[in-house]
Design brief:
Oligomer: single chain
Shape: globular
Distance between the termini: 67 Å
Organism: Candidatus Promineifilum breve
Strand content: 15-25%
CATH topology: Rossmann fold
Largest sheet: 4 strands, parallel
Protein name: Leucine-binding protein domain-containing protein
Structural class: alpha/beta
Number of domains: 1
Pfam family, one: Peripla_BP_6
Family: Belongs to the leucine-binding protein family.
Helix content: 40-55%
Radius of gyration: 19 Å
Signal peptide: 1-23
Length: 207
């Protein structure tokens, strides 16, 4: 009886190990925006677009065998909290790039920390990721955007720029994997240099 139970247990462990081995590795992209406070509408606009972009990237097979994971942090439009968020993302080795922060003062507070940690920052709210009129975005995108929101909400001025920022990063991640055989902070920065992406709002790049 014990031998039979032991065999079943060992078989279960083997199946579990096989399942774990088949899990795709992950690569993380940070998103920092004001999810609370006076600018919260902008923050939710960004996170819905980010979720849509990440969902589409993973549905297409991820990037270079990696599944993309979104790490979203709230800076409330506050410079000190923006710096704290940047520090938190910097100590997570899985995070290879960041999109954010929207306000000039929060971006300025966080940018030096990202630079020190070798993280590329795609700054929302500034060219080429400045707010754009959502009425100019394709109907198919607006429909997909509404579908990821809890109440079929309409896209705002950061919907297109955020989506394009993640599109540019997906291209950079793929190029980093192809040219260096791995996705790291350094390889992503190298891939972003001189890279352009034709997005919903026009041509975007790492400024």
């Amino acid at each position: 009886m014990w031998n039979a139970a032991a065999r079943v247990f060992l078989l279960a462990l083997a199946l579990l190990a096989a399942g774990c081995a088949s899990v795709d590795p992950v690569v993380k992209i940070g998103l920092v925006a004001p999810f609370e406070g006076r600018q919260r509408a902008v923050g939710y606009d960004a996170i819905y677009s980010a979720r849509l972009a990440v969902r589409e990237i993973n549905a297409a097979g991820g990037v270079g065998g990696h599944r993309v994971v979104l790490v979203a942090l709230d800076d409330r439009g506050d410079a000190a909290l923006a710096a704290d968020a940047a520090a938190s993302l910097g100590i997570d080795p899985g995070v290879v790039a960041v999109v954010g922060h929207y306000l000039p003062e929060t971006t300025e507070a966080a940018a030096p920390l990202y630079a020190a940690d070798g993280l590329a920052l795609l700054p929302l709210g500034a060219p080429p990721f400045a707010p754009t009129d959502p009425a100019q975005l394709p109907p198919a995108f607006l429909e997909a955007y509404a579908a990821v929101t809890p109440f079929d909400e309409t896209a705002g001025p950061l919907a297109g720029p955020t989506y394009d920022a993640f599109g540019l990063l997906a291209l950079a991640l793929a190029q980093a994997e192809q040219t260096t055989g791995g996705i790291t902070r350094a390889s992503v920065q190298e891939a972003l240099g001189g890279l352009e992406y034709e997005g919903l709002t026009g041509v975007v790049y790492w400024p």
